Amino acid sequence: MVDNIIKSLQGIMTSELVVLTVACLPVSELRGSLPLAILFYEMPFVKAFTLSVIGNMLPVIPLLFFLKYLTKELNMIPVFRKFFDWWFTRTRARSRLMEKYEIIGLCLFVAIPLPMTGAWSGCVAAYLFNIKFRYAVPVIFLGVIIAGVIVSSALQMGIWFSR
């Protein structure tokens, strides 16, 4: 799915905009945009890292502001209710760290580069656990930075070992 999105965006956007867009997507986030920028577009590391972090953070503030309203309004539509129930159940199941460590747990939840973790799920977790906006934004940002360091390290090791 992400491959199809990238292919369709390549013809109409610059590589920088493609990286930003991929970083904004809930499926790929920074974990997909950083390898795309470094391996496919051969961007310098600092540029790739910066674009990936910015792109991953772009949806965070709107999500934190509007998630409560969106879920309330969209839950009236069965398809969306089913989606939100699935997403919230998955997030709760993977959020033991937050139950135990609250804000530090949220940071670790966002930082761990695994499926169904990241900034989007971090916003859902902040909503579900009633973490205030003023705490959630910087903690999610720190988690995205840590995820970027982890993904970058894995990329560098892969590039280094492939030589």
Pick out its properties.
163 residues, mainly alpha, 80% helix, 0% strand, globular
How would you characterize this protein structure?
The model has no long low-confidence stretch (mean pLDDT 89). The two termini are 30 Å apart. 80% of the residues lie in helices and 0% in strands.
Instruction: Note the beta-strand portion.
Output: under 5%
State the distance separating the first and last CA atoms.
30 Å
Average per-residue pLDDT, rounded, comes to: 89
Helix % is: over 70%
Helical segment count: 10
Count of spatially separate domains: 2
**Shape, please?**
globular
Q: Tally of extended strands?
A: 0
The SSE order reads: HHHHHHHHHH
Mind telling me the C-alpha Rg?
16 Å
- Biggest sheet descriptor: none
Low-confidence stretches: none
Structural class of the helix and strand makeup?
A: mainly alpha
